[in-house]
Amino acid sequence: MNDPHLDAYDVVRPVVIDSPKRMLLLIPYGPDEDICWTLPTVPMRSGETSRRAATRHLRKVAHLPAMRISPIIGRLSREDLPRGVQYILVVRPAAGNWPPSVRFALSPEACWWTTAELRSAGAVVDPAELLDFMDGYWEGWLPDGEISLK
């Protein structure tokens, strides 16, 4: 039975970052030759903000310590549903660095990457707009607030 507290249409996709300019992506599916690097997908509860959904998931499920969520929010349509939105949020430690266990808390297959490493490896990334979004975040040319990525 479906959870009545979940909105079946909107999801949040947190990008967990550390320094310098690295982000954590996961391997959700695919054989070795067709791996797609992607972000966790967290269903949003009815009336819940994207920030709150990301915090709930990262604290409750991944047991991450104190974190900061960037004021920049990327917004994309969901390709798997005729309606619905996916929000891309950037999450970093509130102070210092993440403990080494962060990678395993999110997924045993998780890896740290820079956008340059992903591009030079020719890696398939989902969503495809993620690399440009992250470069814009690090280079400071994205405005605060919600922006459309398509």
Reading off the top of the CATH hierarchy, the class is best stated as: Alpha Beta
CATH level-four homologous superfamily name = Nucleoside Triphosphate Pyrophosphohydrolase
Helix amount: 10-25%
Radius of gyration: 15 Å
Q: How many DSSP H or I helices?
A: 4
SSE arrangement, N to C? EEEEHEEHEHEHE
Q: Can you count the beta strands?
A: 9
The count of domains is 1
Name the CATH architecture: Alpha-Beta Complex
Would you tell me the overall average pLDDT?
A: 86
Low-confidence stretches: 1-6
Distance between the termini: 33 Å
Sheet/helix structural class: alpha/beta
The proportion of strand residues reads: 35-45%
Largest sheet: 7 strands, mixed
Shape: globular
What is the fold named in CATH at topology level? Nucleoside Triphosphate Pyrophosphohydrolase
Q: Could you walk me through the main structural features you see in this protein, from its secondary elements to its overall organization?
A:
- The strands form two sheets. Strands 1, 2, 4, 5, 6, 7 and 9 form a seven-stranded mixed beta sheet that branches.
- The protein is of the alpha/beta class.
- The chain has a single domain (6-148), classed as Nucleoside Triphosphate Pyrophosphohydrolase (Alpha-Beta Complex), CATH 3.90.79.
- It contains four helices and nine strands.
- The longest helix is centred in the middle third of the chain and has 11 residues, at 50-60.
- It is globular, with a radius of gyration of 15 Å.
